[in-house]
Amino acid sequence: MKLYLSGLKSYHLDLGIEYTAFSDPRLERTIQGIKRDHNEPECRVRTPLTRPALLRILSHLSAANYDHIVLHSAFTLAFAGFLRVGEFTYRETDMHLGVSYSKWYLTKQSIRMAEDETYMELTLPASKTDPFRKGMTLTIAASSDIGCPVQAMKRLQTTDHHRSPASPLFCIGRYQQQAFTRQHVVKSLQDLAITAGLEQGAWNGHSFRRGAATWAAEMGIPEGDIQILGRWRSDAYKVYIEYSRNDWISLSKRFQHGLHRGLR
User: Fold this and answer.
1) How far is CA 201 from the centre of its chain?
2) Which of 49, 114, 219, 231 could form a disulfide with 207 if both were Cys (CB 3.0 to 4.6 A apart)?
3) How many CB atoms sit inside 10 A of residue 245's CB?
4) CA angle, corner 179, sides to 172 and 5, nearest 5?
5) How far apart are CA 46 and CA 190, in angstroms?
6) How far is Cα 136 from Cα 128, in angstroms, rounded to an integer?
């Protein structure tokens, strides 16, 4: 229900209509009452794509295959940029928007590479946290390994010189140039995960963003910095971070050890 209300609020924003009613406490109480009368919906499981899993998948992509070069670039960009799947994919019908396409979706011009190739800038024309489409620029550093988003993008640019700068950033087929859809990304991720010998988890569009947040937490990056990297405006990022059983055991040990020290 909150999803539909968010959609209505977004529609009001786009039309410039007053939307203060959506923050009315009576609406929140109504939603809470409905929740008490209905069972909680079953939570969908989403397997996080952490960096070790990403590197295993990337090792099964061929540098001589155009579609693999595109996937390599898209996967590394999505992970390093904490991207939502809708921020780097699009539908077949979206390709007919003409000049308006660049106002909503990534094009080849959305990437600016640093001269020394130590980083690149990605300009998102629209996103969930940018309802007025002012655009936001993300700075993504090079990592100098197979998972490097900068080198992957450089390889794609070199291979993709036959398409105009205004073309979609990603496409399927060197010459067919079909839409780079969410379904294609998820299916490719699922197939590659099996090929790489990873467990048959619930790989989907959220796996990149969830995996990036989980990996950042494992690396000890402060929560505030994770929030900045993922462009979260609230503490919603916390639900993206998943902990393994070993992490829980370690946390429990630290907690109990600290408790014992305090009692001495």
Assistant:
1) 18
2) 49
3) 7
4) 140
5) 12
6) 11
Which pLDDT does position 157 carry in this prediction?
Answer: 97
Two structure tokens written together for 247: 């992490």
- CA dist 225 to 76, 142, 212, 232, Å? 20, 18, 12, 10
Structure-token match 């008490």, residue found: 36
Pick the CATH number of 51-213 from 3.30.70.270, 3.40.1360.10, 1.10.443.10, 3.40.720.10: 1.10.443.10
pLDDT of residue 50: 94
Which sign does the torsion angle of CA 174, 176, 179, 185 carry? negative
Interatomic CA distance for residues 226 and 232, integer angstroms? 8
Residues of the chain with pLDDT under 50: 259-264
Secondary structure class of 260 (helix, strand, coil) = helix
Q: How many CB atoms lie within 10 A of CB 117?
A: 14
Report how far residue 67's alpha carbon sits from residue 180's, in angstroms, rounded to the nearest whole number: 10
Domain ranges of the chain: 2-37, 51-213
Beta bridge partners of 121: 112, 139
Report how far apart, in Å, the C-alpha atoms of 102 and of each of 122, 170, 181, 196 are: 13, 13, 16, 35
